[in-house]
Write a structure and sequence with these properties.
DNA-binding; homodimer; about 170 residues; Arc Repressor Mutant, subunit A; 2 strands; 2 domains; disordered N terminus; two-stranded antiparallel sheet; mainly alpha
Chain lengths: ~170, ~170
DNA sequence: GAAAGATACTTCGGTATAGAAGTAATTGCA
DNA sequence: TGCAATTACTTCTATACCGAAGTATCTTTC
């Protein structure tokens, strides 16, 4: 059943892959640092960091489904459900049954949720500014495109296995 | 007190920073995908994903302190405490008071913990291989060095604030 | 047009993570 | 030498996340 993600480990690696030279390691470390920095910013504003990613989606496009939010934030749907609940409690969004497809909810910003954009968005720039200090523009762009490609590569491995257990072709 | 991590949001960003073009966004997405892929591999082997990062450190250098593990894995010390407890329960490591400095523990691999190296290490290469498919060697290396620089930049902002509230110089 | 499958969401249980505050051991310094 | 600061670790509480399994709704298919 599995293919990219095997049950039996692949034959021993040719290169032992030192952590420093490993993409997985560097991505994880960078992520942890971004995450802590972001948390520090947001907690000062009394906003839970889990909200951030959802707010960013909603500021761009309001009234979307939880599925859409999950896809955009790269988070599982049950996680989104939990966090949206929490955001409703905090008065940042409301839920409304979609009339077209009654399985769905529309998640809608409240005034308070919308107002946070002005207060919080500058942090996105702030964090990226700090993070990218001393990095040439071209290098950064290349890095981001490599990250994007890696995300796509890893998603592929997954879709094949988890989302489509039976090959369609 | 804070400096890099401000209480008052910085003045409004010059560029609105579209998510796709944001380093934070790309790093986070890549991290989530790596994380899921890794989890899928490890759960098939009955190993909790939290163990992985600690095992990797211990396979290289056995008998280190929890502090050292925390530093190497970029994880807070209380998190390390929890996970090491869990690893002890699962019989992968043991703890031994350091006789030189009795505040410390040495975390030591059991035979079982050591044996996992052969079984699990190939995944490090596997994941990186899948992730970096179609990416030029030079581009990857540049990407990793940019990630490293970003991690350093973000850590700096933190150390200034959290680790050294009072300037030493 | 009814059963089978897919989709959107929820609930439950568990892991991974952090911050804050506490304890014990060590180090630094007056 | 003795007390203050620091360090290593723990405990408590809360958040962020996932997989599995369940419900309701929609779609497909014969």
């Amino acid at each position: 059943m599995a293919d990219r993600v095997r049950t039996i480990p692949p034959s021993s690696s040719p290169t032992p892959v030192s952590p420093e030279a490993s993409a997985g390691y560097q991505v994880r470390r960078a992520h942890r640092r971004f995450d802590r920095f972001l948390n520090a910013c947001l907690s000062r504003q009394g906003v839970k960091s889990g909200f951030w990613y959802y707010l960013r989606v909603l500021w761009i496009r309001d009234g979307v489904s939880q599925k859409y939010l999950s896809d955009m934030t790269n988070v599982a749907e049950n996680t989104t459900a939990t966090i949206v609940n929490s955001m409703v409690e905090d008065g940042l969004v409301t839920r409304k049954r979609d009339t077209e497809d009654r399985r769905r909810f529309s998640v809608l910003l409240t005034d308070r949720g919308r107002a946070l954009e002005k207060k919080l968005m500058p942090y996105a720039a702030e964090i990226n500014t700090v993070a990218t200090e001393g990095i040439a523009e071209a290098d950064l762009e290349l890095c981001l495109s490599v990250l994007k490609r890696m995300s796509e590569n890893l998603a592929l491995g997954f879709d094949e296995h988890d989302k489509r257990p039976s090959e369609k072709a």
